[in-house]
Amino acid sequence: MKANTFKQNLTFKNLVVPLVIMVAFVGVGLWGFLASGYTQPLIMFGYIGMSLGIGLGLYGTLPKKQKPIGRRLTLLLVGLFLILYAIFMGQENSQLEGAIFGLLTGVVQMGVIHYAIAKIFGPLLFGRMWCGWACWTVMVLDLLPFKRPAGRLPGRWGWLRYLHFGLSLSIVLLLVYVVGFRDGVSGSIAVTWFIIGNLLYYAVGIVLAFTLKDNRAFCKYVCPVSVPLKITSRFSVIKIGQGAGQCNDCDACEKLCPMDVRISDYILNNQRVLSTECSLCQTCITVCAQDALKLSFGFDMGGKELLRERESKLPAPVAATSD
Ligand code: SF4
Ligand code: SF4
Ligand code: SF4
User: Fold this and answer.
1) Is residue 135 in some structural domain?
2) Which of 254, 255, 257 maximizes ligand 3 atoms within 8 Å of its Cβ, making it the mutation to test the pocket?
């Protein structure tokens, strides 16, 4: 990849994805405002769309070494905003359980709408971009030093997240239909649930990261939110695809992919990256010296999981690198 300057990178091609994402979010906010008469959807989705647009725009246009600034800025802008909004303005539980409570009790607040847009229907357009660019859990976990994972644990560790999802669903079903508790979406109990739930996620995520020497271990093995994300993101219109150059199978991108995707196995097979583990962080595009990768638009069926496995269950000592 050429060491382009900001001015050289400032092209329509580099700005089209940020613009599409920004317009889509602002459009959803506007639709929410017109349909409900409330300004919250416009404020929330307008803000998220602008933050994503700015971060993705910076990522596309900054020189190679500075690109991670765009993603880190967006993670911070969106993640912090959503946490503060849920606690102080909405008084909501924006954890997965809060969304399930909302679905079961018919109480639709911003947290529920946020799940529908960011984690269920939105991924049809932008895949798991939430995981790469907006998640408040990863906003913290990505600050840890283990940015170069040694690969996935072999075996069925990935199934833990399905168990976690089942546990969350069962607890809410029990509370709503057996105990008769229906205040899990908003109010003081809901906010307390949200705060304690997040602190637990951070604690488990940090312990796993240090144990497995992998910032994204929580995402790969434990996070229940990845379950709905994986279902719809397989149809994502935006995926990593073939760029202008030719892949020479150097593996540079795969060694830095935080989600252990075997990128070149797709590209050399003339496919886009069809893994539902891809968070569209674009690190692979940045590190590819051949310019063999780009964000692409298209229609295809994802869900073909080609992932790098680690050789032993014990993490190899791998030095941290930049984003
Ligand atoms: S898998 Fe879960 S914790 Fe990881 S980025 Fe996605 S939503 Fe956040
Ligand atoms: S896509 Fe680029 S970085 Fe990845 S293996 Fe091919 S040439 Fe190497
Ligand atoms: S395949 Fe590329 S965009 Fe997807 S998670 Fe890996 S490095 Fe990020």
Assistant:
1) yes
2) 257
